[in-house]
Structure formats: structure tokens, C-alpha cells
Amino acid sequence: MNRIVRQSNSVLILAIALMGSFVSCQQHPVEIFIAPTGNDNASGTRAQPVLTFEKANEIAALLSGKKEVHIILSDGMYYLPSTVVFTPEHSGSEKYPVIVRAANEGKAIISGGDKLHLDWEPYKNGIYKASVSKDVIIDQLYINGDRQRMARFPNAADGKNVFDAWDLVHTGDPDPGNDPLDAERVASWSQPEGAYVHAMHKSLWGDMHWLVTGKNADGSLALEGGWQNNRPSPMHPRYRMVENIFEELDAPGEWYYNKDEKTLYYYPPPGVDLASATIEIVRLKHLIEFRGTKEKPVRFIRLEGLVFRHAARTFMENKEPLLRSDWTIYRGGGVLFDGAEDCTVSDCVFDQLGGNSIFVNNYNRRISIKSCYIHHSGANGIAFAGDPEMVRSPLFRYGKQDFERMERTPGPKGDNYPSDCMVEDCLITMTGRDEKQTAAVQISMSHEITVRHASIYDVPRAGINISEGTFGGHVIEYCDVFNTVLETGDHGSFNSWGRDRFWTPDINETVKEVEKQPDLPTLDMLAPNTIRNSRWRCDHGWDIDLDDGSTWYFIYNNVLLNGGLKMREGYYRTATNNIILNNSLHPHVWYPNSGDIFKHNIVFGAYRPAIMQRGIAPDGQWGAELDSNLFATNHADRMKFSQNGCDEHSLVGNPLFVDAETGDFRVQDQSPALQIGFQNFPMNAFGVVSEKLRKIAKQPEIPKPMLSDTGGPGSVYQLFGASVKNVETPGEQSAAGLEDIRGVVLLHVPEHSALKKQGFQTGDVIVKFEGADIKNFAQLQDATQAIQFKEGMEFGIIRNQLEQNLIWK
């Protein structure tokens, strides 16, 4: 007890001394220095730094709120013995903040790992081994600062990990002989316990992961996991891999740790000298946490100029489902905010962290993440997620709403969610290295999150994802987002859905409920979402994808470079003054009287609808207004949907861009775009703004505008009195809920047609006939003509994204 008192007294004396040294210089902050060679019995001055965060925080806690306090980290590596936790007792104030900063930006490295000192010896076939004296778990291995691969199969292809080789996903299946679960291969593994199986969702809607616990009686792997996707499916038959198998250690850069023998095996690539190499492993999941409550938050603490490395992977703890989505989430990250206000992370680097780099969890206000470089995150770059207990009548699985029992009070139940937070001037790239159902910026059950001047690229799924309408008010502006959806499918550079209280898969049921209660679509939203002044490109989906139920959006002053604008069923979307290069609007399954507006835009082709017959109002009208646009192709494209009240006042012509080759898509003074109400907006404000980030940020490929008809939807055929066409685009595939592009979609089934009498409906997709797969209309036509129609013939169809059979009567 006396020793504790003496320690407390010494800290108090030191704090008084530090504070008193500045009495005559009130404008100067109190400085507490930390160094890798420091001593926690030292005074904390520049000449006598302390060693640990704990000691610096202990000193700072006695001064915080009374003086501006700077905790200054000297150059070097800081291997944390445990997570650094800031509590309300460490808080600063608006006048006297607490600033934790590097003495020299980028030179102080915060690590959740440990350094190993090993004596390597040759093993065989280019592999080396070393005994590990420490009692450790090795989930990640870093050699000279770069993360290495666990021993795995299939091996890297052209220097890439097969699991994250997006060129394989989008240019063709990998070699079917590379199935890691092949029975003969599995039989060759003596001790697979502790291995992991990683697989893509069957429909490429993210991924799933399993821990191998042993072998079953039949020789197959015993697996635990697969919970990482909220719309479960069997694992993809091709896109899957296994890692942490000793017998698969056969490629440079791979490693395996035998924990029973405490032996590390490593196959060094050319140029790696193990005698001098820095060997590091990972221990901690979280490096820094801000832990407070709404009643007593952590306030006014800033992290500046630091580098964060070596946080553990968390894919097996990614279990919590988000609201009616494909997503699950792990509430943690390299830096975790949970109950904080007015705190900032700025000018920091997040380098190869194993899970989420930054997670803003539940109640947080005015959290700012500015001028950071976030790369090679295992999961999300930055994630905001609120408490589902704040959501009224929450549902967690894709499916029907119970309108009879649903609560109809507007807004959230409380305020336990992130609000008024900012991501600004951040470069975020190569996220989702381990988890594919992730985003560079993920927003769920949050309010008024602003993402501004972000450069985002080379990611497996969306660059920015808004999970649902709860609780709206988000602003996405001046962003540059491209090279997205590289390892998955059916998504966009910006992606959202809005499966809120009003939404149910049956379009007609939603329409009836909204007719009874017109404010139903916005019950969960406190304010609309805005996407503006940004540049988007997606080569494997849509540039902007407003998916199921996305409601109350304002989308203006955007340049869409490739994938177009998809607006699936929802309400009150207004898209104006956008440039959609070599593509157009994709209206999918709209509700009648949706209130959607699309005007003053420049488009390159006819609209590309999917199952829009459901969205036709009694007078044939689509939305509230689709008009006053410029078609850069031809009059046929402009008039294609005139029967739906579209584009009576739109024009056709060359937009006359200022300099399309360099990406300056402002229009010249004589452009016909100005006649339809288009207004120029800046083309030099996309992405990061700080000089250090601009120097390293990539730029998207700028396409050449195609000022002629680029195709549009394919031919329409007649089948027993109904209008049909082939499923030909990812948009039509998505609308139908198909796993791949195949089948014949029924565009319009009149009441008195033969198909209607047999139970077919508009929007059905014929995918089988008499048990045989149907890929297109020609195949269906050949099959039906080959036999006489008779009672009992079986059609396989997709309806409301569910497969069922219809028997011809």
C-alpha cells in the first residue's frame, strides 16, 4: 500500500513540476515524451523520456483539461504489451486538448506485434526453419515490414494470392483442378487442424471463412464457421482456398508455424537474407481504444502523425449481422472509438492491419479522420456502425416485413449511434485483403457521416457502402472512387440498400402499404443522403448502385466513367446534373409513384431498365420526372421510353466537352447540354487534397466518350403472347437474383395471354424447361418446338429471387 502511495505521489510531483515549468509561458503546451529507450521512472522530459503509453497517460491525466498536453513519441517502433485505452479521465477540453503525436510524422510506429530473434537453418527444398522460444500464437508473419502468406493451396498466380486475384474472378474460372477440397488432396494432409478454408459466396456476394477442426469419418474436413455472410450460401465451387497447411508449404513467401513443436518454417523469396531480416508477428486485435459513454465520453484527444501496424485478423469473429443485408461485422479495429466526442485521427498511416483499420462504434460525436493513408486492411478501412437496439422493428435477414406488427413511430429509439463524423482527405486502398464483404468506408445505423475528398481504389467490393436508411443525413462529396468490385459481383463503386421498415421483397405489397401511409419510406431516416461533386468508375458493376429500397437520395454533379447509375426500387431519388459516360440510367423494378427524378443529365445511350413493368403508374409514367436530359447518341435512344413519359424535352447532340482526353468534362459555351439545364462543375476537385497524398494517389483510367449508339438492351421476342428477352447484363441478373447471367426474362405478360393463364407473371425468369437449363431464348425456342405442348410439362422459373417450378396445365 505504501508503495502505491509513493508511486502516486511521484506522478503528482512530476505533473506539478511539468505544469509549473510553463507557468510563465501559458501559451506553451505541457510536453510528455515517450521513447523506445525510455524509462518509466524518468521524468518524461525530452532528455528523460518515459517508456510506455501507460506512464505517459498517467501523467497526462493529472493535467488534462487544465493545460494543453502533448504526448510526443520519438522515432522508433513501439511494440505494445497491451491495447492503449483512453478513458474519460484522459480527456482534454476544447481549449486544452490532449494531443498524442509523433515527434516526426511517420517515424513513430505503433505495433500490436512482437519482434522475434531467430536462428534459421535449412530444412529442405528452399525452406528454412527456426525454433521459437516464446509462447506465441502466430497468425501473421511480417518479413522486413511486409506481410507473408500462410502455406496455402492454390498457390499464388502471377505473384497474387488466388483468393484475392480479382483478374481470375472476372475473366474466367480458375483451373478446376485447383480445388483445395479435392478428396485426394485433403487425404494428403496429416494434421489440418488449425487451417482455414476461405471461400466466396456462391453468388459472389462477399465471402465466408471456416476453421478446420479435424477430419470427418469420411476423410473430409471438419469445419467450423461460415457465419460471415448474412445471406448464407454454399461456398463457391471454384473461388476458394485453404491456408495454414504444412504440406502446402511449397512457394516463395509462404510460411507455417507448428505450435506443438514451436517451430517456424519459411520459404524465403529471392533477395531475402534471413540472417539480417526483421521478423515480426502479430498479437493484439486493437492498438488504441477510446472507451467512454454518452454520459461520460472521452473528449478532445487527437492522434497525429503516427503509423499503426500489426493488428490481428478478425474474420472468425465477424459474426454480428447487419440489418437485412448480406453483411456481418466485427465491432473492433486497429483504432476503436466507443463513446467519444470531438476526437481526431490525422496524418496517420494504417499499414496492413489484419481487421478493420478504424471502427467507430455506437455513441460517438464529431469524430474526425483526416489526411490518413489506409492500405492493405484485412477488412474495412473505416467503419461506422450504430446500435441495432436504436432501430424500430429491426429485421436482420433478407425477407418479408410483418406490416401488421411493425412499429410505425418515426426515427430511432435513442442516440446510441455515430453522428456528425467526418472522413476527409484520406487515401484508402487495398482494403479487404482477408474479408471481401467489406468497404473502404462502411456506414450502418449512423447519422450525418460526411466523406469528403477521399481517394479510394483497388478494393474487392464497394468503395463506399451505406447499409440502410437508418438514419440518413450522410454526405459523400469530392471523392474519387474507382477500381472497385474487383473480387466480387453485383455491386457498385458506391453501393447502398434501404431494406428499412417500408421494404418487403414483394413490390406490390410495399406499394399497398405506402399508399396507406405515404411517409412510410422515410420512417427510419432523419434526413436525405447526398452524393455530389465526385468521380466514380466501376468496371464490374455500376458506378453508383442504389440497390433494394435505397430511398431519399440527392445525386448531383458527379462524373460516372463507366458503369452508369443504377436505381433499383425505392422512393424520392433525385439525380440531376450528372455526366454518365458511355452508359446511362439503369432503372430497376421501380415502384409506381416512386417520386424519382432524373433530369439535366448527360447520358450516352438509352436507359437500361429491368422489370420496369412493375413500376408503371396507371398512366404509364416512370417516376415523377425523367426529362430535360442530353443524349449523346441518337434520337432513337431519347425516344425509346417516351411511352413511359420520358424525355419529351430532352435533346440529342454532342456535349462538346472541354478536354475529355484529360478528364475535363465541363462543356463548352456552345454545348446543347446548357440548353437542357446542365451546369458546369469543377473537374479538378476529386480525391485527396494534401500534397503528400496527392503524390502517391492513383488516378482512374479516363474513357473516350463514344458518341454513337453503344447498344442498350437486346432484342425483344414474343412467346405465347408475352414479351420476353434474354438476361444479358449484370443489372438484369441482379434484378432477378440469379447467380449468373442466364435465362429468359418475361418483360410483359398480358392478362389474356397463354402464359398468364398458365400462372406466369411479368418479371419471371425462365431458367429450366423439362429439367434442362435454359440460357437464352433461342435455346428455349428450340426446346419448346422439339416437343408437343402437353399437360404436365415443367418450367423452372425465378420469381422474387426464389426458384420454383410451374407445371403446364
Question: How is the topology of this model organized?
Answer:
Elements (H helix, E strand, L loop, with lengths): L1 H19 L9 E5 L18 H9 L7 E5 L2 E4 L4 E3 L11 E5 L5 E4 L1 E4 L4 E4 L2 E5 L9 E3 L2 E2 L1 E2 L1 E2 L12 H6 L11 H5 L8 E6 L5 E9 L5 E5 L9 E9 L10 E5 L4 E4 L12 E4 L5 E4 L6 E2 L1 E4 L1 E4 L10 E2 L6 E2 L5 E4 L1 E2 L2 E3 L2 E3 L6 E4 L2 E2 L2 E3 L2 E3 L6 E4 L32 E7 L2 E3 L11 E4 L2 E6 L2 E3 L6 E3 L4 E2 L2 E3 L2 E3 L9 E5 L10 H10 L8 E3 L1 E4 L2 E2 L5 E5 L6 E4 L2 E2 L4 E3 L5 E4 L2 E2 L4 E3 L9 E3 L2 E2 L21 E3 L2 E2 L3 H5 L11 E2 L4 E3 L4 E4 L23 H4 L22 E3 L2 E5 L3 H7 L7 E5 L5 H4 L7 E5 L2 E2 L3 H10 L7 E6 L2 E6 L2
Parallel strand pairs: 1-2, 2-5, 3-6, 4-21, 5-23, 6-24, 12-18, 21-27, 22-28, 23-29, 24-30, 27-31, 28-32, 29-33, 30-34, 31-35, 32-36, 33-36, 34-37, 35-38, 36-39, 37-40, 38-41, 39-43, 40-44, 41-45, 42-46, 43-47, 44-48, 45-49, 47-50, 48-51, 49-52, 50-53, 51-54, 52-55, 53-56, 54-57, 56-58, 57-59, ...
Antiparallel strand pairs: 7-20, 8-9, 9-19, 10-11, 10-20, 13-17, 14-15, 14-17, 15-16, 18-19, 25-26, 61-62, 63-64, 64-65, 65-66, 66-67, 66-68, 68-69
End-to-end Cα distance:
89 Å
Structural class: mainly beta
Low-pLDDT sequence parts: 1-9, 21-25, 709-713
Overall mean pLDDT = 91
Structural overview:
The protein has 809 residues and is mainly beta. Helices cover 10% and strands 32% of the residues. The strands form ten sheets. It has a 17-stranded parallel sheet that branches. The chain has a 14-stranded parallel sheet with strand order 3-6-24-30-34-37-40-44-48-51-54-57-59-60. The chain is globular.
